[in-house]
Amino acid sequence: MTFVGAVRIDDTLDGERFRLVLLVLKKNMQEAHQLAKAQLQTSKVESKNRYDQTLKFLKLNPGDKVMIQEKQNKGKLAPKWLGPYSVIESHSDSPNITILKKNKPAKLHKNLFKKFHE
C-alpha cells in the first residue's frame, strides 16, 4: 500500500487508475496554489491601504529648519533628535534631502527628518 498525499493507493492498482489519481491530486494542488496566490494579493492590497492611510508626507522647502533622528544609541539620556539644520535641496521625486551640516552639504533620507518649529 502506498500513500500519495492524503490518498491511499493500493499497489494492485493498474496504471490507468494510478495516473487518474495523480491527475486529481495535481489539479487539487494547482487550485490550492491559485487560491493562496489570490489571498496573498488581496492581503497585500489591504496592507498597503492601511499603511497609506497613516502615512504623513513631509514637505520641505529650501531654507526650512529640520531635526535629524539620531540612529546611534549613545545612552538613554542622549538626545534622539539633532539640529536644527537648514534644508538646501529637496525634490518631490527623490527620497533624499540635502541639508547643511557643519558647513558641508549632507544628503539624507526623508525618513530621518522632522520639521523644526521655533
In short:
By secondary structure, the chain is of the alpha+beta class. It has one helix at 15-54, and strands at residues 2-4, 7-9, 65-69, 81-90, 96-101, 104-109, 113-115. The chain has two domains: 2-54, no CATH class; 65-115, SH3 type barrels (Roll), CATH 2.30.30.
Commentary on this structure:
By secondary structure, the protein is of the alpha+beta class. It has 1 helix and 7 strands, in the order ββαβββββ. The strands form 2 sheets. The chain has a 5-stranded antiparallel beta sheet, with no helix packed on it. Strands 1-2 form a two-stranded antiparallel sheet. The chain folds into 2 domains: 53 residues, no CATH class; 51 residues, SH3 type barrels (Roll). Helix content is 34%, strand content 31%. β5 and β6 form a beta hairpin.
Largest sheet: 5 strands, antiparallel
Rg: 29 Å
Number of E strands: 7
Q: Order of strands across the biggest sheet?
A: 6-5-4-3-7
- How many domain units? 2
H/E series: EEHEEEEE
What's the end-to-end separation, in Å? 80 Å
Total of DSSP H or I helical runs spanning 4+ residues: 1
* Class per helix and strand makeup: alpha+beta
Helical amount among residues, as a percent range?
25-40%
